[in-house]
Amino acid sequence: MITCSAPGKIYLFGEHAVVYGEPAIACAINLRACVSVEVASSGKITIDAMDKRANCSSEEFKYACCAAQIIKKLFETDFGAEITIRSELPPRQGLGSSAAVTVSTIKALTQSLGIELDNETVAKIGHKVENEVQGKASPADTFVSSTGGVVLVEETKTSHLAQLDMPIIIGATGVERATRDVIASVSDLRKKYPSVVSDVMSSMGDITRFGEQKLAEGDLVSVGELMNINQGLLESLGVSDVTLSRLIYAARTAGALGAKITGAGRGGCVLAITTNGKVDHVTQAIAKQGALALTTAISSLGLHVEA
Ligand code: PMV
Fold it and tell me: Structure pTM?
């Protein structure tokens, strides 16, 4: 049996805009998905996740199933497999749980088949899987999950920024949503008001560029301000909602330097950054609103094979 694990991610800046070619900054976090694989020469693909079992006819585990189908096609091979998924990441809530499961599945399957792939190649195959399942996806999630660290995502390339040491507080609403539905609603808005939405996307791109500079200078106050402006623009696209706004304002009132949604929005999670001294305060303020509050940090550890 081969077991691989990979981290989830948060977006400091630029989700949604990244789908339209603007840059974004995403970071791997210390919450991981873990996938174990037992390959057989033939037979079905069976998935076992969080005490639920299913085969590939189930919609529920479509990322792992699609990953297995793409590996079969790419390497012109056939196999059966028992895939077991365990994850610390709440699913469908903007923390990149699907990407972490996807790249861990690809790595564990290929290792089991004796195929050696580097993490960037796994990320590219993972991106194909996400495109197939979601309709449209940026390469950000699978790249960040595969390589770890802080990543600048641009239209045709992804590159690492310096590692950052700052506490990250996540508020998970527990409201699950399909990323593709939220992307589709933004796309509809863009078709209706092309020049307005293009300007919003391009301002988000500017925020990411300023953010990159402020991160390099270690100016977390400005990073927080830019996150707050980014949130205003996400609001304008209709991807925030009242529950997310409550969490964001609770975090800011408790002393967060910046707070915004992370990922597609319309449910899912918010993210706050703060100084070390205010972590408990901000965490409690988020929990008080009824959300699951998780304190985490940026992880430099990407996809890897567990010992
Ligand atoms: O909510 P998530 O983790 O699926 O992130 C979606 C982020 C988008 O920018 C909306 C889409 C993407 O693929 O980058």
Answer: 0.89
Q: Give buried/exposed letters for 155-167 (b at 16+ CB in 10 A, else e).
A: eeebeebeebebb
- The per-residue pLDDT string of the chain (307 residues; one tens digit each, 9 = 90 and over) reads 999 999 999 999 999 999 899 999 999 999 999 999 999 887 889 999 877 887 776 666 889 999 999 999 999 999 999 999 999 998 888 899 889 999 999 999 999 999 999 999 999 999 999 999 877 777 888 999 999 999 999 877 888 998 888 899 999 999 988 888 898 999 999 999 999 999 999 999 999 999 999 999 999 999 999 999 999 999 999 999 999 999 999 999 999 999 999 999 999 999 999 998 999 999 999 999 999 999 999 999 999 999 7
| Superfamily for domain range 168-296 | GHMP kinase, C-terminal domain (3.30.70.890)
Neighbouring C-alpha atoms within 13 Å toward the C-beta of 86? 6
Fold of 2-162+300-305: Ribosomal Protein S5; domain 2 (3.30.230)
Sign of CA dihedral 175, 154, 6, 282: negative
Catalytic residue positions?
141
Ligand 1 pocket mutation pick from 89, 183, 244 by most atoms within 8 angstroms of CB: 183
